[in-house]
Amino acid sequence: MACHETISCPRCKATFECRVGSILRCQCQQVTLTEEERAFIGEAYSGCLCAGCLSDMKKDYRQTRFKERLLQIFSLRAKR
């Protein structure tokens, strides 16, 4: 891959400049992700996503985890 490359986001199809050659200046650095969030996104997409989609996927992950926790709580209460 070149130092800078214009690519399409596989999620929203928007074009953006991927700066894998100088990753600290890449647009994806705007979004801080945990290892769990990275794994969640990696299960759905193998390439680079735009910063907007990274933020959206981060929110999706957090909502999914929240729903899972709620279901755990309710299932524990139902067992009592």
Structural account:
The chain is mainly α. The chain contains 2 helices and 2 strands. It has helices at 35-44, 51-79; strands spanning 5-8, 15-18. A two-stranded antiparallel ribbon has the order 1-2. The termini are far apart. The mean pLDDT is 89.
Relative strand content: 5-15%
| Class per helix and strand makeup | mainly alpha
The helix content is 40-55%
What is the helix tally?
2
* Terminus-to-terminus distance: 57 Å
Order of helices and strands: EEHH
Task: State the strand order across the main sheet.
Answer: 1-2
Taking pLDDT < 50 over at least 5 consecutive residues as the criterion, the unreliable ranges are none
> What Rg is obtained from the alpha carbons, in whole angstroms?
17 Å
State the shape. Answer: elongated
Number of strands: 2
User: What kind of sheet is the major sheet?
Assistant: 2 strands, antiparallel
Overall average residue pLDDT: 89
How do the strands and helices of this protein lay out in sequence?
Layout: E1 5-8, E2 15-18, H1 35-44, H2 51-79
Antiparallel strand pairs: 1-2
What attributes does this structure have?
two-stranded antiparallel ribbon; 2 helices; 2 strands; mainly alpha; 80 residues
Concise structural overview:
The chain has 80 residues and is mainly alpha-helical.
